[in-house]
Amino acid sequence: MDIVTLGNEILRQKADPIEEINDEIVQLANDMIVRLDPKEGIGLAGPQIGVMKRIFIVHIEGDEPRVFINPSIINTSEDEIIYEEGCLSIPGVWADVKRPSVIQVQAWNEKGKPFRVEAKGIMARVIQHEYDHLEGVLFVDRLPEVKRSRLLAKYEKLKRA
């Protein structure tokens, strides 16, 4: 299960809803959990592995891996916080990104059970980052143009090295 990196058009496409949580989707979720090395990252979305389905995994240290299928962010706080983000699909670069500090999200888990969670801190940040992947949005898209250009130039230089 290879990670799709910046430049692949898949990362700019909107993922399709999952129609049925069946054995194939359960296996996909399990494979994604295994693939996500907590030393490398704490979230992984379907498009990042070339699967255009609305699924992502969040695995924060000290917590069990969580599966989000067909998620919807239903509420966000007005209060925003800046925090450094990186991405498995844009290795080697990080930038400060402003996002709502608290969100409410609803989704289904790998057992087909709907759930709703209010997330704050790093959990809220990772959910928003991974949700963006399902929408074809990357964290660099949330940066001012000058900062984004500089970061993308750095990434290109790292790729050539």
How would you sum up this structure, described in words?
The chain has one domain (9-160): Peptide Deformylase (Alpha-Beta Complex), CATH 3.90.45.10. Helix content is 27%, strand content 29%. It is built from 3 helices and 7 strands, in the order H-E-E-E-E-E-E-E-H-H. The chain has a 5-stranded antiparallel beta sheet with strand order 1-2-3-6-7. It has a two-stranded antiparallel sheet with strand order 4-5.
Name the descriptors:
161 residues, two-stranded antiparallel sheet, 7 strands
Mean pLDDT: 95
Strand content: 25-35%
Any idea how many domains?
1
Structural class of the helix and strand makeup? alpha+beta
By CATH reckoning, the class would read Alpha Beta
Number of alpha- plus pi-helical segments: 3
